[in-house]
Amino acid sequence: MTLRIGVVGGGQLARMMIAPAVELGVDLRVLAEDEGMSAALAATAVGDYRDADVVLAFARDVDVITFDHEHVPQDVLTALVDAGVAVRPGPSALRHAQDKIVMRTRLAELGMPQPDWAAVSDAVQLQQFLDDHGGRAVVKTPRGGYDGKGVRVVSLATEADDWFAALAEDGHGGELLVEELVDFRRELAQQVARRPSGEVRTYPVVETVQRDGVCAEVIAPAPRAGERLTAVTAALGVAIAEGLGVEGMLAVELFETTDDRVLVNELAMRPHNSGHWSQDGAVTGQFEQHLRAVLDLPLGDTSPRAPWSAMVNILGGPTSGTLEDRFAAAMDDCPEVKIHTYGKAPRPGRKVGHVNATGDDLDDVVYRARAAASFFQD
Amino acid sequence: MTLRIGVVGGGQLARMMIAPAVELGVDLRVLAEDEGMSAALAATAVGDYRDADVVLAFARDVDVITFDHEHVPQDVLTALVDAGVAVRPGPSALRHAQDKIVMRTRLAELGMPQPDWAAVSDAVQLQQFLDDHGGRAVVKTPRGGYDGKGVRVVSLATEADDWFAALAEDGHGGELLVEELVDFRRELAQQVARRPSGEVRTYPVVETVQRDGVCAEVIAPAPRAGERLTAVTAALGVAIAEGLGVEGMLAVELFETTDDRVLVNELAMRPHNSGHWSQDGAVTGQFEQHLRAVLDLPLGDTSPRAPWSAMVNILGGPTSGTLEDRFAAAMDDCPEVKIHTYGKAPRPGRKVGHVNATGDDLDDVVYRARAAASFFQD
Question: Are A17 and A28 within 8 A, CB to CB?
Fold first, then answer.
């Protein structure tokens, strides 16, 4: 029987599942937030993912539900499970990607290396943490943050007053997460795929370069990642995937500290920007792998297809016209680079596409990916 | 502006254009023969490609028309051109892929190496050709043949009587094509991409293995293809693409004779089964390349991504159930092989999918592709 996957959310991650779904012959159906979203081609429904009735109706005709993002509320997720729908990753795993305090608490239980952290419910507690950590720290709203949103470096507890006030207002008596400011050498990411029946596969650890809190570039594998680092991050990824019961793709964002430790920064339970290189750089790209994992099919080979891959995001795009207007120049200059666009109108800071380059020489691969991406920006 | 391509025909070739179209951000629209065709996901219209009104209406909202097959009649093609539609490849090029006598005549004018051939209008002429060529020859209907259909090896002119009778009946006073039976060592294929502004790129020559007149396997590049053979087939492909004014992908099917000549067997002006390996084995797959070519965008790098690639067709499929029922076994055994299915119900002899394998060792690559394909057949 044709396998049917329902994806909640119509963004670029759902869009990039379309290509492997077509090739495998998987019937991919998307519940999009609006008409004309990135994944519109596969959209079979448009509706509010916070409405259990909408999501339940969408789920009726598929074998498994998965996600373009982690924002589907727990009550909707549990309603799906109660109705007998296969939800992958499931609500109890997704909680850890939805609430950073839940994640920190669980990772601590699992003995995972993390920055020092605390859940603080008022400015007094926050100030105490600041005093204990050299007077500066990172404050995060536990829920809803992404791409640098909901993250603030503070040196005075009063700098989080607005967030405390908002928490008080929402009536849930919530807390903010505060984390030590990690002295890191660079950021890494570890991709892991896990299927319900237990099979796990890891991708090579990659280096991610963030600009203004947004992923700008990824190099795979992470340069100068020796056997030890590679083994440590893979083991860490597997431990988290298993410990949290992840089904599908997991991305573990990591700090490599100046004193050679690896600390968990963030988690994402879906294909992730730090894994886009794998579309062209690995035998099995993360989008195909996610489909296989949520269908509980055997996972694909995660080996790199070339010694080096580089991914460079197209952020914002050209100030006039569309990305396609720049195709001729980019393709002419970089015939070997793979261009991926998301069907989104250019807008400052918006992720509207990315390019992947692969090859034998690291500097050359990075140079070519940057060159190709530059054609899509002013 | 978003680039829009209209594909006439909803088969697997149109289907396999979807993945690169999504990634590039090209709006691919398909005029399908029926509901539920291979390329149904991108079908925006269903209708008869022999009806000029249907095709003209479909063409109204796209930038360029291209094809899943070569069967669109010349009068429909010229109606498109007359209406100002960009048609790639155009009617004057496509004629050579639609009529084998037109092809043979033009290739002769271009000085291309071919089997001895003649256009014969009755059994007397056919018998004369047989007498001149050792008593056996290949007779072909000039139009409408594919995958071994419309091709017959004869040793008596009367064996083509039914075809002569059919020609007489259709009132066009047509001829049959007769060709010498070539003593060949193996069959090869040369893929070439050409865009309207003139840029041409060749793929490495491949070896194709036919069974019962149908492509069964492809190895890329062709084993033991030295520099000379590679240069000869590439030059031949370019000469034909330029001589015939091809726009898009061209496949030149070739015989490598036992006395080391290369002769043109057939042409296809579209992505072709002999080029499917390039989806996973080349930097730019033939489907992406076709999109770039018909949009007159700079062509992509055609370099192989691995020393060897093998493509094995899934012919017929399992006698019970669907291809997807076999995914678990195939993926478990061959995690590194890429599976492509066409969304077609299994039926004896039908091409329902293919698998691609890549790697450093030829024997291993072929073995793995065959092994993976075998899981999809009884």
Answer: yes
Q: How far is A259 from chain B (nearest CA, A)?
A: 37
Contact A334, A371 (CB under 8 A): yes
The pLDDT confidence band at residue B308, using thresholds 50, 70 and 90, is very high
CA distance B221 to B205: 6
Q: What is the DSSP letter of A298?
A: P
Alpha helices in A29-183 (DSSP H): 52-59, 74-82, 91-98, 100-109, 123-132, 161-169
Q: Select the residue of A26, A41, A332 nearest B22 (Cβ to Cβ).
A: A41
Binding positions of A for ATP: 100, 140, 179-182, 187, 265-266
State the greatest distance between any 2 C-alpha atoms of chain B, in Å, as a whole number: 61
A/B interface, count of CB pairs below 8 Å: 122
* Type of residue numbered A221: P
- Virtual torsion, Cα B52, B53, B59, B65, nearest 10 deg: -10
Write down the pLDDT at residue A174: 84
Q: Which positions in chain A touch B303 (Cβ < 8 Å)?
A: 336
Strands B27-32 and B43-46: parallel
Model confidence band, residue A147 (pLDDT cutoffs 50, 70, 90): low
Sort B225 into a burial class: Cβ within 10 Å, 0-12 / 13-18 / 19+: buried
Q: Tell me the two tokens of residue A319.
A: 């100030």
pLDDT per residue as tens digits for the range B262-275: 999 999 999 999 99
Confidence of residue A146 (pLDDT cuts 50, 70, 90): low
Tokens of B87: 């048609």
> Can you list the domains of chain A with their CATH numbers?
4-87 (3.40.50.20), 116-180 (3.30.1490.20), 184-374 (3.30.470.20)
B187 is in an annotated binding site: yes
What is the phi/psi pair of residue B42, to 5°?
-100, 5
